[in-house]
Design a protein that fits this description.
By secondary structure, this protein is mainly β. The protein has a single domain, classed as Porin (Beta Barrel), CATH 2.40.160.40. About 5% of the residues lie in helices and about 50% in strands. The protein contains two helices and 17 strands. It has helices at about 5-15, 35; strands at about 50-55, 70-80, 85-100, 100-115, 120-135, 150-165, 170-175, 180-190, 195-200, 205-210, 215, 220-230, 235-245, 250-255, 260-270, 275-285, 295-305. Strands 1-2-3-4-5-6-7-10-12-13-14-15-16-17 form a 14-stranded antiparallel beta barrel. A two-stranded antiparallel ribbon has the order 8-9. Strand 11 and strand 12 form a beta hairpin. The termini are far apart. It comes from Pontibacter burrus. This is Type IX secretion system membrane protein PorP/SprF. Pfam families: PorP_SprF.
Length: about 325
Amino acid sequence: MKKLLPLCILLLLVFGYKAQAQQQPQFTHYSFNGMQLSPAYAGITNRPEVMSIFRYQWLGYNATFDDGGAPQTLLLTAHTPVRLLRGGVGLTLMRDKIANTTYTTAALSYSFHIPVGEAKLGLGIQGNVNNIKKGSYRAIDDNDPSVPYNSSDSKYDLGAGIWYESQTFYAGGGVTNLLHSEYEFANQQDGVGDDKKGNVLSENHIYVTAGYHLPLTREFVLTPMALVKHDTETFSFDAGAKVTYSEKYWAGVNYRHQEAVGALVGMGLFTDNSLRVGYAFDFTVFDKVAKAPTSHEVMLSYRLPEPAVRFKPPVRTPRYNFSR
């Protein structure tokens, strides 16, 4: 029942929104990437952590754009528990470039932690600022209204999420773009000084993920994992598993719905595996003619030890009882 409670809350969160949008960046290292999926992940592991992922999707893919159409995404996250706030705080920075369009976001997250037996439930909220910049395009015909000029706009938005974490099981998710911010771009100069406007409406993106750590032997642990992505117009999911040896080395496989199959490997370095390095490889199996065959990811994270308790709470005892 303790495991079902957060999942039920998460389902209510997921199905409470209806919208239309395109998918946001995707990562094969999603099992290491809780901060991008949910603000409730902030501080939930009790260890401060800084993590970065660089993804080059469809390496070598060149569409009809001047700069090529292969998406390139750089993600940087940091989070830490904060005892005085009864939870954790986190920071997310991301730059996603597709051809001449660049999407940049910076987000601050807070997660309120609730003890659930030996596990922990996090309820998170996120505030972020987003910028969409459409780069320079060369029009075939002069004054083509479909070609953007000087197009860049920034807006604020909100997100929310939930996360459940125990030693053997985790589940969580989040929803983005709660304010449905509308981005405006100048598309064409008419020669008089007025611009015709083009609009982009940001819609909700919903993520749900889970994983279970299943000990096979004293040294080997199998972790089945899954991620569901939904923007209320398109649906996608990842499903896979990884095997970890001696809490230090891991290798796994992944399947992305109607997209690709992949593999990931990695290892931990230094004391308590504080530095983790990972690599993921995707091979396109659907719509191969319209895409390049491979995608690549590099993951790097550094985890600090759990913060030490600097003071102990007062202990009340009836032994000393002064009265007048």
